[in-house]
Amino acid sequence: MKYVKEGNLIFVVIDKGEDLFESLYEVQKRDGFLGAQVSGIGALKNVEIGFFHCSEKSYDRTHIENEKELLALNGNFTFNDGKPFFHLHTVLGNEDYTTTGGHLFSAEVAVTCEVYLQVHNMKIERKPNAEIGLNLCELC
Q: 49-72 pLDDT, tens per residue?
């Protein structure tokens, strides 16, 4: 993984075989930003995505082993229970040109991954929301 920063914009290139989340957390650790908007493209494999069922307050999860085109990676960086937290969603392209998507739990880079982080110094904390069943951003 390597990255460059200019102003409030960080461009990250994550190499084949690297863990997407580990790489992003390493950038945050080195740079020390408190918040970010995330977007990216590339190719992933060994992906775990999920769909949240509001009525059940739980995720259905699925593991996708094969390589997929990373058509969209979107999300943010906040803090969850005081710990750094990347909340990411994805759209993946399949060989037959259909798509699959959802909440991204884990992924390995299959070819490359190019990620932009628009960073800022707003420290947003996530707190449990009993009605929804998730830790949601709390704005004071």
A: 999 999 999 999 999 999 999 999
Place of tokens 């709390």: 138
List beta partners, residue 113: 14, 42
Distance CA 47, CA 66 (A): 8
- DSSP H or E segment with residue 16: none
Token pair in block for residue 94: 């399949």
Place of tokens 């947003």: 124
Residue 74 to residue 116: CA distance in whole angstroms:
10
CA distances to 87, 91, 119 from 84, rounded to whole Å, are 10, 23, 14
Assessment of whether the complete model's pTM goes beyond 0.85: yes
